[in-house]
Amino acid sequence: MVAKKLSPLGDGPDWSFTLLEQYETEIDRVAKYYDLDTYPNQIEIITAEQMMDAYASIGMPINYTHWSYGKKFIQTEQNYRRGQMGLAYEIVINSSPCISYLMEENTITMQALVIAHACYGHNSFFKNNYLFKTWTDAESIIDYLLFAKNYITKCEQKHGISEVENIMDSCHALMNFGVDRYKRPQKISMQEERERQQDRENYLQSQVNDLWRTLPNVQSKGSDQKVLFPSEPQENLLYFVEKNAPLLEPWQREIVRIVRKISQYFYPQKQTQVMNEGWACFWHYHILNHLFDEGKVTNSFIMEFLHNHTNVVAQPEYNSPYYSGINPYALGFNMFMDIKRVCQHPTEEDKYWLPDIAGANWLETVHFAMKNFKDESFIGQFLSPKIIRDFKLFAVEDDEKKPLLNISAIHDNEGYQAIREKLSAQYNLSNIEPNIQVYSVDASGDRSLTLRYIPQNGIPLAQSHVEVLRHLHRLWGFTVKLEEIKENGNPILLASC
Amino acid sequence: MAHFIDRRLNSKGKSTVNRQRFLRRYKEQIKKAVAESINKRSVTDIDSGEQISIPKRDISEPMFHTAKGGKRETVHPGNDQFHRGDKVERPQQGAGQDSGEGNASDSGEGEDEFTFKISKDEYLDLLFEDLSLPNLQKNQFDKLIEYQTYRAGYVSDGVPGNLDVVRSLKGSVARRIALTTGKKKELKALQARLAELLSDTVDHQLEIIELQKQIDDLEKRIARVPFIDTFDLRFRNYEKRPLPTSKAVMFCMMDVSGSMDQATKDIAKRFYILLYLFLTRTYKNVEVIYIRHHTEAKELDEHEFFYSQESGGTIVSSALKLMQEIVAERFPSNEWNIYAAQASDGDNWTNDCATCNQILQENLLPIARYFVYIEITEREHQTLWNEYQKLAEIHDNFVIKHIRKIADIYPVFRELFDKSADKQTGAA
After folding, report:
1. Model's pTM, two decimal places?
2. Which one of A69, B43, B61, B181 has the fewest beta carbons within 10 angstroms of its own beta carbon?
């Protein structure tokens, strides 16, 4: 098991399980040296075909069946076969034990890179970042998915595939609006989930009926005061539907809930892409270099590693044909490297821009940054002028009303603060996703549901909202309206269904 | 400490169910694509799957998202020329500068068609869904003609060539053990007794003689058990089992007289493709014989059959006669399932129709599983149709259909082989 102290580990290129274990032991040792706190690792070797399977079911080892995953699979397969796209080297799941998939065709160098990247980088991020800690429960997710899969299979047997599929389609259409952005959900285990599911069925149904049974009494009808339901606008559309849709059957409510829960589980991943990837790259880079410094890995190993690493963290420029936005790996990796630099060798500029961390202990600082931020706040806090210069960042203002684009800030003294703010805003999910909330239900009238879209900077809603409303109508059962609040504060009707 | 698991041997078809769900959901679209695709194929080209295209908008998953417009700011890397306050033209759609954020398409590819490949089996399943082979039932029970010899255990009687030595010796050993064990035990006891007496100081002459005699007797009896007996012999047994024949021959007959133009032939070709595909679903070997005729019939290869033009009058019976000859010569009806499809525009020399009727009635219909006549014409029916109609009323395995245009083919084909229609025509 224990590798001989002086001779380096084999550098393949082929891997074997013994060799993998040796590397894993070494990586584990170095990771502990750098205080990486992880869930236990479960590393699974899979084939390319299985990797495509995993892709199709949003990376989860188990998931309910739905045609859209079939579509995804076919798409992935087509692209892969045509050579338009390589498969990822790994997939890692936020669960405990943390499951990572390694592809069998990787060389030993790649496997080591992936182990350091996924099994220690991502894994420690999952375990320690505040968003993941608050919103996801790594212990129970696999159990929950199993519960969901079985429950949906049961529903299909009982009510028919098409019935279930209709509900699922509608829920998927609203999936992005099935998350609580601020309220914290409670953790729950599979056992409890199953028990509570039964109770919930009965209880919820009675609750819903209660809402509709309450008729306004004659006296209050005379007064102009209109009681709004819900009393405050609701951002979680699926939650609102689950609790209040009048006509849903208990099993349909449960399906709404399942989709909502899974959406919530993935919500932190969307908010921490840059950080998560940056953190993982930062650590595979450090761990493997550490092993090289110790003489544990060979020259050819480190060359192959650096070659791959460089490809991963490359950032094409805006006018390159390969450009497709900012590469989260590149930005994240460079920002963490920069934090380390600022801690170790701060310049005057750094002391001005990042006074809190200039000269601090770098290891503590990167851990602090990883634990307590999401992309938006991470960039807002740590994007240094040096990174802005290195990336040559510039901001473009695209105002529909003006004929030309305006370059609003570049990588110069006046621009640093603006770029920081703008880039930070670019990773703010509430800027990216349209702001749509449940505004009211006409409880005493035709039971119609009104949603309100509040545009930011006059950005309109895409035409697909008509389709989505149809889905919402299926869940709600009565008329559904979508209003847009115009600049003067007045709502206009966008669509109704 | 990490835990390594080798999952490579696990099944890989984890997404198969999802894939099937997808196919199920878009069956209508896929079926349409499948039906269109047969027009492009050669009659015997069935080994490939099919490329299916579905318009992207049909399979989109709608979500709320923002559209272009309004005012937005994006940050890009790699500034090489801009200063603050610069005004630049909006880049053309699709140029690198456009950020993905406001992009309305649900996936980055932006293709209009969602294209994917279905396997051969999926293709054929979709193509022939709800169809069943006419008279298949009859076939499998009435015409069990082929026999296959197979090993079926051992028997105690047989020809020396089939003797199984190992099996026979096994029997011999068993028999010998069974017949001698008791005696050997007895012998052992006697020998022990003898040794005892011999070593005894007292003389036991008489007893020893008696014992010796008994021992000799026993030894003789043991020796008499034969090493091998006819009882031990085992012979390998072979039996014959009837096999439903998996061979089928399909006759494509077509009129190539002057009145048949290329478009009409194309329609016929498509019909033959369908029939061929259909037969290969049921039979392992399907032979195709192409017969074309004007005033006389000729057997040809596929290319000539479809693409050479000849002119002249029309004598349909010549093709029927040729088919009859070929069957007699090469495809004995007790070994082959015979299918025939005849395509014509309905023209025939009037006096010939009665002959056709007679050949079919007496020679072909009794041996054919199915004989289908399609008339491809936009005109009124003529004598041949009328003559055939009479036949169709009497015979279950003779069907006539009328095709006017290309779009009719598939529906007509389905109608011909429809499961329910099958019952109706009284397949049993």
Report:
1. 0.69
2. B181
